[in-house]
Structures are given as structure tokens and as C-alpha cells.
Design brief:
Distance between the termini: 9 Å
Order of helices and strands: EHHEHEHEHHEEEHHEEEHHHEEEEE
Structural class: alpha+beta
Number of helices: 11
Largest sheet: 15 strands, mixed
Strand content: 25-35%
Helix content: 25-40%
CATH class of the largest domain: Mainly Beta
Number of domains: 2
Shape: globular
CATH architecture of the largest domain: Sandwich
Length: 315
């Protein structure tokens, strides 16, 4: 859908950690570009994640409906969670991303340039789309103890273990490569686990290496883990990798980046559903956009066309 972005005042949500030492220069560049395309805006800079979430919730409750998010996948995911938790009608919310993260996997699906200023040009074009939102609920003894929303990919099993090991590292050296480095380290020690999967029409128990539940296609700094996911079809693409040898994983990392693993590996299967339960003993690790989920059993749902997000390309 096309909107005239000049008709609205846009609330800018800034993640200062995404800008690091380049803060002032980047902000100046962004402001000049917004002014050049005559976009009205108001900055909101917060110092902590909790402050940012509270700010977004309050802005939504006060009636603000148009937002620009400056940051990466984690910042955008924080924004979506705040919107959903604000209890306003999320279908009234319009959000554009200026990608300044290290991974920017969500933006890959939507054709964003690596030049962050080009996102402002896309905003001027007003190209937005109805976008599905995923919901992961953590359950203990069938009682929901935590919930997290997502608009890209939620990972369980090996994917969760990789993020857990990555987040233990505090070094900033080689940050864009940290996911791949920790993937290889985790691969050596990780063991597949028996999982029972329940969807709306099917129940199965398998020895599973990892599960990805995708609204979009990319995670892990460019891995096309859910290569056929459609962000507005009302369904989750569930990509399951069953027990597989370390050697086969290593030999197929290139295929994972290209999205060819679904076709080339017999251990990989894909299905579409709007509902999935994952039950295990002991519990497995889960993650959403690089943030760890509370451990337990998991219930995953798709909320169709729940929010309006900017695409940097048509279609």
C-alpha cells in the first residue's frame, strides 16, 4: 500500500547502542536527509531497553501511529513487542526502519539497501505492507509464564544454543562474524533432542537438531533459513532439521546461506501452519532476534496482517 509520508509526523525511536561512537555524525546525516525530503519528525532517545519500551507504549497510547526505528533487528523487534503490549490496534501502526544493526536480517527480506540513508528515500515513497507478527508463548505445565512477539524468525534447539553462547561473549571484535563463529563452536558439543511437535492437524515425535519458525526468510547474518517464507500469508514456515552429522552441517553451510538446504538435505523438511507446539524433556533453548526466550515448552502462533511495515522495494 502507498501512503503520503509527508502528511504525518513521525516519531523516531533511536537505539543509541546501534550507533556506537558514530552517534553525532549519523544523526546529523539522518536529519539532513529527512529535511531534504520534507518529512516531519520528532526524536526520542532512550538510555535503556526498558525505557525505550515504556516510551513506545506511552506514545502508542497517546495516539501516535507513525514511527521510524533506527537500529537493527533487535531494536525493531523491541518496537514490535512494545506496540503489541500497548494493546492499541496494531493494524493502525506504520513503522519504517533505518537499518544500523550488525545483522539486519529482517531488512534483507524487504530489499533494504546497505546504505542506511536510502531507507529515508523509501519512506518518502511511502511503500508499506501489512505484515504478519509471530507470538511465542513459554509454557510450564501448560500454563503460560512468558510471551514474546517476532516479525522475522524464532529459533529452537541448536539455534537457541548458538544465540545463548553468542550472548555470553562480551567482546566487540569481529561482531558481524560472531554468530558464525559461535555456530561452529556450538556444533561440536550440541546433541539433537527428542521433540514432540503439535500443529493444528498433525502431531509427531522426532529426534530434532533445530527448528526455525519463520515470518521472513533470513537470520544469523544472512542465512536464508526459511527460504520460502512469505511475510503476509498468515502462516509460519516451519523448517525442521532432524539429527544430522557435524560433517554434513559444515559441508552445507553455503547451502544454508543460499536457502538450498531445504531441497538438498534429506534431514530437512518444511511445512506451513499458523500454530505449533514444541514439547520436550528436558526443555530446549529458544530465541527471537538474538534474545533468549524463557525456557519451557513453546507455543507459536501467527497473527495475520498485525502491523504495517515499510518495504524498501515494491511487491
Amino acid at each position: 500500500m502507498q501512503i503520503n509520508a509527508k502528511l504525518y509526523s513521525w516519531q523516531i525511536i533511536l537505539n543509541p547502542h546501534a550507533l556506537s561512537f558514530r552517534n553525532d555524525q549519523l544523526l546529523n546525516d539522518i536529519e539532513r536527509k529527512l529535511q531534504s525530503v520534507q518529512i516531519d519528525y520528532l526524536y526520542h532517545v532512550t538510555s535503556t531497553i526498558d525505557d525505550a519500551k515504556e516510551l513506545i507504549i506511552n506514545l502508542c497510547k497517546k495516539g501516535e501511529r507513525h514511527f521510524i526505528v533506527i537500529g537493527g533487528d533487535g531494536t525493531l523487534n523491541l518496537f514490535v513487542n512494545a506496540v503489541m503490549e500497548s494493546l492499541v490496534n496494531s493494524a493502525e501502526i506504520y513503522a519504517a526502519l533505518i537499518p544500523l544493526g550488525t545483522g539486519n536480517d529482517w531488512s534483507r527480506t524487504h530489499g533494504y539497501s546497505t546504505n542506511y540513508l536510502e531507507a529515508i528515500v523509501a519512506l518518502d515513497s511511502g511503500n508499506f505492507t501489512n505484515h504478519d507478527v509471530g507470538l511465542v508463548e513459554t509454557l510450564i505445565n501448560e500454563k503460560v509464564i512468558d510471551a514474546r512477539y517476532f516479525i522475522n524468525i524464532a529459533g529452537f534447539g541448536f539455534d537457541g544454543a548458538v544465540i545463548y553462547n553468542t550472548r555470553k561473549k562480551t567482546t566487540k571484535i569481529f561482531r558481524p562474524q560472531m554468530y558464525l563463529i559461535n555456530l561452529l563452536k556450538t556444533l561440536i558439543a550440541y546433541k539433537p533432542q527428542t521433540m514432540t511437535l503439535k500443529s493444528t492437524d498433525h502431531t509427531t515425535t522426532k529426534n530434532i537438531f533445530t527448528i526455525a519458525a519463520g515470518i521472513c526468510q533470513y537470520n544469523g547474518n544472512g542465512m536464508r533459513q526459511c527460504p520460502d517464507a512469505i511475510y503476509n500469508d498468515g502462516l509460519l514456515d516451519i523448517v525442521i532439521i532432524e539429527k544430522v552429522s557435524i560433517l554434513k552441517v559444515l559441508l552445507n553451510i553455503k547451502n544454508l546461506f543460499k536457502g538450498l538446504h531445504v531441497k538438498k538435505l534429506k534431514e530437512v523438511s518444511m511445512t506451513r501452519t499458523n500454530y505449533l507446539e514444541i514439547n520436550t524433556t528436558p526443555f530446549i533453548l529458544g530465541e527471537v532476534e538474538g534474545e533468549m526466550l524463557t525456557t519451557g515448552d513453546y507455543r507459536i502462533r501467527c497473527l495475520p496482517s498485525a502491523i504495517n511495515l515499510m518495504r524498501a522495494k515494491s511487491g
